[in-house]
Amino acid sequence: MKNDRFIVFLVIALVSIASLVGVSYLSDDGIEEELVSNIKTIGDYILYSKPDQALIMEIGDVKITREQLKLSKSIAKDKSDIAAYESLIRSTVKGLVAQDEGIELTREEVFKYIEQLQKNYNENPNSKEVLNQYFESMNLKEGEFWILNETYKVYYDFLLDSKLRRSLGEKIVQAKGNQYNYEELRQLVDEELNRLIDLKLSTVNIKYYK
Q: Do you know which InterPro entries this protein is assigned to (predicted)?
């Protein structure tokens, strides 16, 4: 039975999954918080969800399964189906925006990032103590966690989101000058990203399945 102490806390909403968490695209702070939060999110999802590959919709050429919808709900603050669908659609379209912006992410980059997180886990006594208790309570093996497909997916989405935001931030600074503080630039990036997602949504065909 899950201990209340290990309720999932989200730091930043990402993609799918991912989307949904992590270190700021402009800062290296918060690694420990991201590490603990994401591991708990993935662990809870793996333990308490049943695989379901039934197709629920297509967004352009991207096929979305019911399992992906469940994952979206598991990491969202709003657990309603409507909110989960909207989050999943926008995160998927964000991936299409990244393609349009020329953002690329290799498997090697993702694995390197995961390796760094694993190193941080092993070197940080505080996060390691908390997560060791979590793994034990959930009957999870820490060594197996890092090579799960779900783990790769979470950090792929997170890194793609980070690279896209960083690129948009750089374009804003190039166009308007380096006159913004962190929060101002972050807000401008969020606004530009939402604008691009909305624009892409207006051109993408979405097909739903029962």
A: Trigger_fact/SurA_dom_sf
Closest CA to 60 of 184, 178, 202, 192: 202
Which residue, chain included where needed, has tokens 């624009």? 199
Element (H, E) at 64: strand 62-65
Q: What does the alpha-carbon distance between residue 58 and residue 81 come to, in Å, rounded to a whole number?
A: 17
Structure token digits, residue 197: 């997602």
Contact 145, 151 (CB under 8 A): yes
- At 133, the amino acid letter reads Q
Residue 186 backbone dihedrals phi, psi, to 5 degrees = -60, -45
Task: State pLDDT tens for residues 162-186.
Answer: 999 999 999 999 999 888 898 899 9
User: In the structure encoding, which two tokens stand for residue 67, read together?
Assistant: 């399992």
Report how far residue 200's alpha carbon sits from residue 103's, in angstroms, rounded to the nearest whole number: 16
Report the distance separating Cα 19 and Cα 67, nearest Å: 15
Q: What's the number of CA atoms in the CB half-sphere (13 Å) around residue 85?
A: 10
pLDDT band at 28 (very low <50, low <70, confident <90, very high): very low
Instruction: Report which secondary-structure segment, H or E, holds 208.
Output: strand 206-208
Q: Cα dihedral sign for 48, 54, 57, 59?
A: positive
**Above 90 in pLDDT, residue 47?**
no
Report DSSP state, residue 77: S
Find the DSSP H helices in 49-148. 66-74, 81-100, 107-123, 125-137, 142-145
